[in-house]
Amino acid sequence: MTGLVEEDGRALISVPMTNSRGAPLTEIIAWIDTAFDGHLVLPLATIRELELDSLAEAEGILADGSRVTLKTYFCYVEWFGERIPLQVIANDGRFPLLETEMLKNRVLVIDYPRRQFSLD
Fold first, then answer.
1. Are 117 and 107 in contact (CB under 8 A)?
2. Rg of the chain taking only CA atoms, in angstroms
């Protein structure tokens, strides 16, 4: 899997996802975010567009140590040839974030001079 790196250094990856196992996939462009150990964080607008089902609320701890309540939703993601079920976290941001849990057992190489990356 490959992607590009923006001028400001953000690595972008295409993540095919859907709201149910048999539904068509929608490509979402996400930033690779290595600062959080979840799977995916999606803006509420994206969650509404995909019509994802609400799951539950979860408690999270932010970088400053404060605790917050996070709303979670359910989706399927096409990931290295498999359609896998995932819990995603909603946020008020503008950009989807692919988190470190999705990178486990993978090798991520970011080539900043060439502005590209590979994920194997």
1. no
2. 14
CA–CA separation, 104 vs 37, rounded Å?
10
Instruction: Please name each of the domains of the chain with its CATH number.
Output: 2-119 (2.40.70.10)
User: Which pLDDT tens digit goes with each residue over 52-103?
Assistant: 999 989 888 877 889 989 999 999 999 999 999 999 999 988 999 999 999 9
Question: What confidence category does residue 48 fall into, taking pLDDT thresholds of 50, 70 and 90?
Answer: very high
State both tokens at 64: 């400053």
- Rounded Cα distance, 35 and 100, in Å: 8
List the one residue out of 76, 87, 77 whose CA is nearest residue 14.
77
Residue in the structure block whose two tokens are 């095919």: 16
Listed in sequence order, the DSSP H helices in the chain are: 44-50
